[in-house]
Protein: Transcription elongation factor GreA
Amino acid sequence: MQRIPMTAQGHQALEDELKHLKTVARPEVIQAIAVAREHGDLSENAEYHAAKESQSHIEGRIIELDSKLARAQVIDTSKLSGDNIKFGATVTVVDEDTEEEATYKIVGEDEANIADGKISLSSPLARAMIGKEEGDIAEVSAPGGAKTYEILDVKWI
Structure:
């Protein structure tokens, strides 16, 4: 069984979503199915079919979250340190072509959100940076061609 690395915040977010699905979304869709059944012929009842489809999505997500939480390897990033980039590091890089600086925190897949500056451990950029130090160059194969980034700073926040 493959472990899934995630921060404590990411783990809590998945637990919160699971709790919401089990205590709010699931009962709501069960109620919607019951109401739709009262409308008669189920073969031509769009409300019933929509509610059943929604139920299927909710149950699938519950199964997925249960599995991920069971395999979670929660890493306390506040206790990490060092010069080498690894999971939990906050890294400032500069694109050597455009001179644009960006700061990213390396997190688990479910936590990744580029708008918040969080990239997945399995992303090409994160994979290129793992093991590197401040001043090193990370080369990333991108659809538009290879990109190079200089690592300006590594923090543990």
Observations:
- Strands lie at 4-7, 72-75, 90-95, 101-107, 118-120, 137-142, 145-155.
- The radius of gyration is 22 Å.
- The longest strand covers residues 145-155.
